[in-house]
Amino acid sequence: MIVDAHHHLWQAGRGDYHWMSPDVPVLARDYLAEDLRPILRRAGVDRTIVVQAAQTEAETDFLLTLAGEADFIAGVVGWLDFEDAAFTAKLDALLRREKFVGLRPMLQDLPDDDYLLRPTVLANLRHLAETGVAFDILTFPRHLPVVLRMLDAVPDLRAVVDHLSKPPVASGELQGWAEDIARIAAHPNVFCKVSGLVTEARQTTWSPSDLAPYVRHVLDAFGADRLMFGSDWPVCLLAASYCEVLNAARSILDPLLDADGMAKVYGGNATAFYRL
Questions:
Q1: What's the CATH code of the domain at 217?
Q2: What is the residue range of 207's domain?
């Protein structure tokens, strides 16, 4: 079974996608479950995790409704304000919703790089850890030292780094990111998604060889037990089709994995991490 551990669905007219612009027409349109279904069929992907793309509770409700109607969606990573006084009650309500599996603040877009270290945020992350709900980490490399401090403060948090924390693939630079991501990997409860790399590369001329040093590094750091594949569709369409993203991952990882490792990276780890 192949599980795509990271994709999005959205309806542009809902109006709460702060990043959406008509200047990027490939993204400024609807992408719904029935658009993705035939693509998954062609790619041989069985189940998916849909991840929030708006910083609103309304979008989380929208995604949970879509998940209830689409059999291939196995889980929803939603959004809550980690400084909301009602965070605990709102999380309890989400836990009663079918297919809710995790939360993701859009850390890369927040003005405060130290957001994760705010006292209220840390308190609610500790509560999240107590519930066992997954936490998706959406960051740039500059945020990783702060993530490390947060993980030291909340060691029981079950977390996953999205998109390898967006390393500078276009420049080929590894230094700094490589050391920090290895320190993150030293926390045994933290996983990593092999996703989102094509949009960090030279988008019109990228090749799997551009991505390979970064993927090999996280495989060395996290091991086959803590990596999971994600397409980042439809964001990936800025640089590649769904199948091109999957084929790039397979061309890099498959020669480095045995059959058991492939089963884990392409489905088993996402199933276990998100408790599908």
A1: 3.20.20.140
A2: 3-273
Distances (CA, A) of 254 to 70, 219, 229, 240: 30, 11, 12, 20
Distances (CA, A) of 212 to 182, 218, 255: 16, 10, 12
Closest to 140 (Cα-Cα) out of 117, 169, 119, 118: 169
Give me the number of domains the chain comprises.
Answer: 1
- Which two structure tokens, joined as six digits, stand for 275? 């408790």
| Cβ proximity of 160 and 134 under 8 Å | yes
- Give the side-chain half-sphere CA count within 13 A for 162: 29
Write out the two tokens for 229: 């594949």
Rounded CA separation 95/105 (Å):
17
Q: Using the 8-state DSSP alphabet, how is residue 240 labeled?
A: -
Nearest Cα residue to 210 out of 167, 175, 162 = 167
Span 64-90, pLDDT tens digits: 999 999 999 999 999 999 999 999 999
For the chain, the C-alpha Rg in angstroms (whole number) is 17
- Regarding pTM above 0.90, the answer is yes
**How far are the Cα atoms of 51, 99, 209 from residue 78, in angstroms, in the given order?**
6, 10, 33
